[in-house]
Every structure is written in C-alpha cells, then in structure tokens.
Amino acid sequence: MKSSFLFALSFKSAFLAYGLALSPAAAQMITTPSEVKGGTYVVEPGHTQVGFSVLHLGFTNYSGVFSDVSGTLELDPKKPSASKLNVTIPIASVQTTSAKLTDELKSAQWFDAAQFANATFTSTKVELTGKNTATVTGTLTLHGVTKPTVLAVHFIAAGINPLDKKYTVGFEATGTIKRSDYDVKTYLPLIGDQVQLKIAGAFEHQD
Predict the structure, then answer these.
(1) CATH number assigned to the domain covering 32-205
(2) How many CB atoms within 10 Å of residue 154?
(3) pLDDT digits (tens, 9 = 90+) for 100-135
(4) Closest by alpha carbon to 32, among 132, 133, 110, 146?
(5) Cβ pair 51, 197 in contact under 8 A
(6) Distance between CA atoms of 29 and 76, rounded to whole angstroms?
(7) What number of other Cβ atoms are within 10 A of residue 179's Cβ?
(8) Apex 70 CA angle, 171 and 42, nearest 5
(9) Strand (E) positions, the chain?
(10) For residue 3, how many C-alpha atoms fall within 13 Å in the half-sphere facing its CB?
(11) Cα 30 from chain centre
C-alpha cells in the first residue's frame, strides 16, 4: 500500500514537472508582435493546417483539411508591411472524415490532384489592422487558376518550442473564396460556392 502511494506521488510529481516544462510561462512565450525575432522562417508542416468548410445541401457546414504545407515567411516585426509569405499546399494531402469523399476530392471531378498537384499562396501586401492582427493580400493559385485573395491574420505567439528547441512563431488566418472562381463547380448550387478558410500556421526561424 505504501509503495503504491509513493509510486502515485512520484508519478504525479513527474507529470506536473512535465506540464510545467511545456507551459507557456516556462517557454517564455512572446505575445507582442514587435518583440518577435525577425528574419526568414520556414513552415513547420507538422502543426500547420489549411482547413476549409462549405455548406452541404443547405444542412451542414462540412469541413476538411489540407496538410504537408511548405513555404517561407520573411518576417519584419519592425516594419510588418515589408513581410512576405509564400506557401505551397499539396492537393493530395486533402482529408475529410469520409474516405470516399477524400478520394473524390482528389479526382478530376473536383481538385484534380493529378493535373494540379499544388495550390500556392503568395502575399502581395501586408497591412496592420490592430495590435495583433493584419490583413494579408495575395494571389491564390488553385486548380490552375490564379485569383487575388485576402486573409485576416491573427498573431498568436512566438518563442522557443519546448520539444524541438526551435524558435517558432504561430498565426491563425481566416478568409473566404468562391470555388467557382477556380473552376471547381461540381454540384453547384447543391453544395455551396463560398468556401470558408481557417488556417493554423506554424513557422520555424532559420538561424
């Protein structure tokens, strides 16, 4: 009984110590954009996601996600308007909760991953809209079509990742596009034309 109690106490202490090591306070997270380290960053693909949702038959907003994103961020915290973003999104990385639909989205009926392997976004302008927010205007190339796109970006935090010890900066971005603008018109208007984007972006500083 005593040994079980000591084991439980040791386990609890170790768990609390591990949690403290991973806490934002322990990692000394930076939440003021002007204090973030400037320079070149690359996408950290393991924790970057491009989520999308579309109205399905008028009943539900159905969601999916792209992953394995790559790209670079040239970040200038002293002059945010000089910052630049370039990302590439593999179309074959698309996933939904339906294996059948996931395969269908990769086909020529929808995104046609075989012919248009990647989507790309390249920023053309960055404008601050608040202390931790900005509007990022750029061009989105999808399904072989390039159109101007605007993202509302929110800076979350920066600091040393306690797991891999790399200086990391994180953002969340939202936006709306019309899939018909990119010649993806399957099942219109039964399945909505407007696509809501929600993006989690993690970037690692290149020393």
Answers:
(1) 2.40.128.110
(2) 14
(3) 999 999 999 999 999 999 999 999 999 999 999 999
(4) 132
(5) yes
(6) 18
(7) 21
(8) 60
(9) 39-43, 49-56, 60-66, 70-75, 84-90, 118-128, 133-142, 145-160, 167-178, 191-205
(10) 0
(11) 19
* CA torsion through residues 93, 94, 97, 103, sign: negative
State pTM to two decimals: 0.85
Do the beta carbons of residue 33 and residue 77 sit within 8 Å?
yes
Residue 20 · residue 13 · CB < 8 Å: no
CA gap 190, 104 in Å, rounded? 16
124 φψ region: left (φ > 0), alpha (ψ -120 to 50), beta (else): alpha
Q: Which of 77, 61, 50, 27 is nearest to 149 (CA)?
A: 50
Query: Could you read off the pLDDT of 47-100 as tens digits, one per residue?
Result: 999 999 999 999 999 999 999 999 999 999 999 999 999 999 999 999 999 999
Would you kindly state where each structural domain of the chain is located, as residue ranges? 1-30, 32-205
| Residue pair 27/160 in contact by the 8 Å Cβ criterion | yes
